[in-house]
Specification:
The chain has 149 residues and is of the alpha+beta class. 18% of the residues lie in helices and 42% in strands. It contains two helices and six strands, in the order H-E-E-H-E-E-E-E. It has a six-stranded antiparallel beta sheet, with helices on one face.
Length: 149
């Protein structure tokens, strides 16, 4: 299954400059997802992190993986933010960042559902560039019903 940026925006409440998933290239509903973020020199965070040696902040790599996991959770249950559902990032375990992400990298984002119990999702997640692992972690997200105007 392939989702472009317009379809991704149906399943994530984040918008520029905080939407960190550009395209979904594979998805097995209820199981796993593979997406990517094209990292460009125009990203607003590079202006201050670090101007002469720009690297993507690790917390944004974590956020990109959490957003990827959120798309999988939403899409697997056919729930959307416009219907009053949100996934909150509530934690990361076994977090390891192994290599910097720099302008020009294509950051591949993979998440697999480990468990879903009473709206608490646990995902195995991995970020990579080419054949190199950027980071691995277990992500926890909580599904919540919210009021929509």
């Amino acid at each position: 299954m392939l989702l472009d940026i317009q379809e991704i925006k149906e399943y994530l409440p984040q918008r520029y400059p905080f939407l960190l998933v550009d395209r979904v290239v594979e998805m097995e509903m209820g199981k796993s997802i593979l997406a990517y973020k094209n990292v460009t020199g125009n990203e607003p965070f590079f202006e201050g992190h670090f101007p002469h040696q720009p690297i993507m902040p690790g917390v944004l790599i974590i956020e990109a993986l959490a957003q990827t996991a959120g798309v999988l959770g939403f899409k697997s249950q056919e729930k959307k933010p416009k219907d009053g559902y949100l996934y909150y990032f509530v934690g990361a375990d076994n977090l390891r960042l192994r290599r910097p992400v720099v302008p020009g990298d294509k950051l591949m984002l993979y998440a697999e559902i480990i468990t879903n119990r009473r709206g608490i999702f646990r995902f195995a997640a991995k970020a990579s560039v080419g054949d190199e692992t950027v980071g691995t972690m277990t992500i926890l997200c909580a599904e919540r019903k919210v009021d929509v105007d």
